[in-house]
Specification:
Layout lengths: L16 H12 L8 H11 L5 E4 L5 E5 L6 E7 L4 E7 L4 E7 L11 E6 L2 E8 L20 E3 L5 H6 L7 E4 L4 E3 L3 E4 L2 H20 L6 E7 L7 H10 L3 E9 L8 H4 L9 E4 L5 H13 L5 E4 L7 H6 L7 E8 L7 E4 H17 L11
Parallel strand pairs: 3-12, 3-13, 13-16, 14-15
Antiparallel strand pairs: 1-2, 2-12, 4-5, 4-9, 5-8, 6-7, 6-9, 7-8, 10-11, 11-17, 14-16
Length: about 375
């Protein structure tokens, strides 16, 4: 059992001004799937003062380690990458057609501003769309991968290529962080850089509270979740942890056009969401629920059926099976440029992960039947 830390003084917010400055910088940074390097450097620079050691795997998953010599290993994990686009085809007239990198939504693309990432630097572009005046209302075109296109102000393909743009360049949206009504954090890529932020804050609290953990803690920010949990699949084999707590986002279902029958009843502001499903280890989940009740942290529940769709699956079924659980952050408008989360939920996910870690014993046996 972890050594008890002194009680934290009540405060208006768990998040410090430095935390908030890092959050904004981290969210505004572009870290598309397969190109996460810059964001991972930002994250690791923030985490380094709170850990004893760190490492980066060949594909960019970054890990801060507390008690690196301990034999018993616990992981807290989030993923770092964001959805984006690839340059797929450049027409002779200088327009650019795209291909998805992750689950990018073609319906929101028209009229969005984007950054094309090239070896020469950022090239600005826009997703064009014909004006309402010239469209036939009866046959109004619906955005699709076949008709959305980028305009970077060039008259021909040669001019586009002189800017450094070529097939395979990655494209991210330009939208940046903002707040709504003082309580919602809004921006692109809160899925799931908000998770990376939250596990970094757990590391900060452990350091500031001088909490002594009886195991090695691996604070893991994985790459390539948006294309099939690939970063988590790799890092679980490298760390081979004894238990893992994963954090990701899940759908708030309170807004218009959301279906509670299909997607459950989850609300921003009502607390972290705990998942039930085959990949979620019941004994690990019980530790988390007990910690929530003990610390009086309100939480919600969701059923995930065959798979969680998160890095939890990669940890649960990797390295010969790792007892794993998922703590989700409710989020509105997933895979748009205005993803939104409630500040209170962010703080309570941090608190719940921290409380759960303090309840784990070194050498704890998670088997159902011993």
């Amino acid at each position: 059992m972890a050594k008890k830390s002194p009680p934290r003084k009540p405060a208006k917010s768990l998040l410090t001004p430095r935390s908030m400055a890092f959050m904004e910088q981290y969210l505004n940074n572009a870290s598309p799937t397969g190109f996460e390097t810059k964001g991972q450097k930002l994250w690791l620079d923030y985490v380094k003062p709170f850990v004893d050691d760190h490492f980066v795997d060949p594909y960019g998953t970054s890990v801060g380690v507390i008690n690196p010599t301990a034999k018993y290993k616990v992981v807290i994990e989030a993923h770092a990458d964001e959805i984006s686009w690839f340059v797929h085809y450049i027409t002779k007239d200088g327009f650019i057609y795209v291909r998805r990198n992750g689950g990018s939504d073609h319906l929101i693309a028209p009229s969005k501003r984007v950054n094309i990432h090239t070896d020469k630097g950022i090239v600005k572009a826009i997703f064009g769309w014909p004006a309402i005046h010239v469209r036939n209302g009866k046959n109004d075109p619906v955005p699709s991968l076949e008709n959305i296109f980028l305009d970077c102000g060039c008259d021909n393909k040669e001019e586009v290529e002189k800017l450094g743009v070529h097939v395979g360049c990655v494209i991210t949206y330009e939208d940046e962080f903002m707040t709504l009504n003082g309580k919602y954090f809004v921006g692109r890529a809160l899925d799931n850089r908000m998770g990376g932020f939250m596990i970094a804050e757990v590391a900060r609290l452990i350091k500031e509270d001088r909490t002594k953990l009886p195991f090695g803690l691996y604070i893991t920010n994985s790459v390539q979740e948006e294309v099939g949990l690939r970063g988590a699949e790799m890092i679980v084999e490298r760390i081979k942890p004894d238990v893992a707590i994963v954090t990701d986002v899940t759908h708030d279902t309170q807004t218009p056009m959301m279906n509670k029958i299909s997607n459950g009843d989850v609300a921003c502001g009502s607390g972290p969401v705990l998942a039930y499903g085959p990949a979620v280890h019941n004994n690990v989940l019980k530790v988390i629920i007990d910690a929530a009740k003990r610390e009086k942290i309100a939480f919600q529940r969701t059923a995930v059926s065959r798979a969680t769709g998160t890095d939890t699956d990669a940890f649960a079924y990797g390295a010969a099976g790792v007892p794993s659980a998922l703590i989700s952050l409710p989020l509105r408008y997933m895979h748009t440029t205005v993803e939104s989360v409630n500040r209170k939920d962010v703080e309570n996910v941090i608190r719940l992960i921290y409380a759960s870690l303090k309840a784990i014993k070194a050498g704890q046996d998670w088997r159902y039947h011993k």
